Amino acid sequence: MQALYTIYEIIAMLTNVLVMLIIIQFVIGLLFAFNVVNSSNEFLASFYNAINRLLEPVLRPIRNVLPSTGAIDFSPLVLIILLNIVLIILGSLLRG
To answer: Where would you find the membrane-spanning parts of this chain (predicted)?
Structure first.
């Protein structure tokens, strides 16, 4: 049973890292969109592109299901909610 808790903790840690990357992507995107940071900043642009390449395969199916809302992309929020739901379900299964 201890091994299952260890696996759950690893999944929770990886989920937290993924949520942090989603938030970082969102913040950098806002900084670029409102010209707080120039998009020609090579470090931030390359960091933003790397995060996009990591998250795009996960966010694309969510974007395909969600209706178009114009400039606001709700897929990161939906992904964060889904990840938390999965953690809650896994935690309940381990406790029950």
So the answer is: 12-34, 74-94
Percent of the chain scoring above 70 in pLDDT: 100
- Please give the distance of CA 25 from its chain centroid, rounded to a whole number: 8
Residues 36-79 pLDDT 10s: 998 898 999 999 999 999 999 999 999 999 998 877 889 999 99
The predicted structure's pLDDT at residue 69: 82
Q: Which 3-state string (H, E, C) describes the chain?
A: CHHHHHHHHHHHHHHHHHHHHHHHHHHHHHHHHCCCCCCCCHHHHHHHHHHHHHHHHHHHHHHHHCCCCCCCCCHHHHHHHHHHHHHHHHHHHHHC
Q: Return all residues near 91 (Cβ < 8 A) that are at least 6 apart.
A: 8
Closest CA to 22 of 71, 45, 46, 56: 56
